[in-house]
Amino acid sequence: MIKVKAMVVLDLVNLLHEREITFSLEEGTTIRGFLEIMFSKYGPRLEERIYADKEKDILNLNLYLNGKHIIFLDGLDTVIQDKDTLLFIPFAAGG
């Protein structure tokens, strides 16, 4: 078993009622697999907030694993290691 910490901000805090959540996962769990575990625990509203289009792997937010955006890793297929931190950050826009 490995431990991973999920940290959330803004509207996800309202949905999860926590800023920081620690999970025990099986070795070899990917970010995609971890998200499915979160969806089974927190329900379809979380899935709607995270995915813009699940079939195309388009997210509604940025995911950072240990400070690196997952697009610079293996995306949703990145394997989570013991004591990793996954940060959920909404897209920012401004003008």
Topology:
Layout (H helix, E strand, L loop, with lengths): L1 E7 L2 H6 L3 E6 L5 H12 L1 H7 E3 L4 E2 L1 E5 L2 E2 L14 E7 L5
Parallel strand pairs: 1-7
Antiparallel strand pairs: 1-2, 3-4, 5-6, 5-7
Helix pairs in contact: 2-3
What distinguishing features does this structure have?
five-stranded mixed beta sheet; alpha+beta; two-stranded antiparallel sheet
Give a verbal description of the structure.
By secondary structure, the protein is of the alpha+beta class. The protein has one domain: Beta-grasp domain (Ubiquitin-like (UB roll)). It is 26% helix and 34% strand. The chain has helices spanning 11-16, 31-42, 44-50; strands at 2-8, 20-25, 51-53, 58-59, 61-65, 68-69, 84-90. The strands form 2 sheets. A 5-stranded mixed β-sheet has the order 2-1-7-5-6, with no helix packed on it. A hairpin with a 4-residue loop joins strand 3 and strand 4 (58-59). Helix 2 (31-42) packs across helix 3. The longest helix is centred in the middle third of the chain and has 12 residues, at 31-42. The chain is globular.
